[in-house]
Amino acid sequence: MQQKLELGDRQNLIKVKEFFTKVKLLNEKLVNQVNKNMKKVIKGTVERPRLSIFRSNAHIYAQIIDDTNATTLVSCSTVDPEIKTQIKKGNTCEASKLIGQILATRSVEKKITQVIFDRGRYMYHGRVKAVADGAREGGLEF
After folding, report:
1. Stated pTM of the model
2. CATH number of the domain to which 114 belongs
């Protein structure tokens, strides 16, 4: 049985929805501000490009970026077909470590050995740390 909402209940429900949408917008603003501040501090150059990490719930993406020319030099993710065959799930530390190793081998082929590590808004823990460890094992220097 559904209850009919009275006029006061409907107004309260609308106020609650408005409150949560404001909180969501404020949270998005804060996240964008943190990312903007990080980009001011961390810049990649031609000699030492930036290794950027993006982590979703299902996959992890890593790319080496030259910020002076605004170009992506090397990229790798758990969505790549050649990597999908080697892993079961894209959201594990083992998959992240593999991404770091493959990214490092691709970058060494392009004669990139030194990078600046940009963890973005993510803590240096878990999958982000696994990518960094894999990249170090593959031959990149931070």
Report:
1. 0.72
2. 3.30.420.100
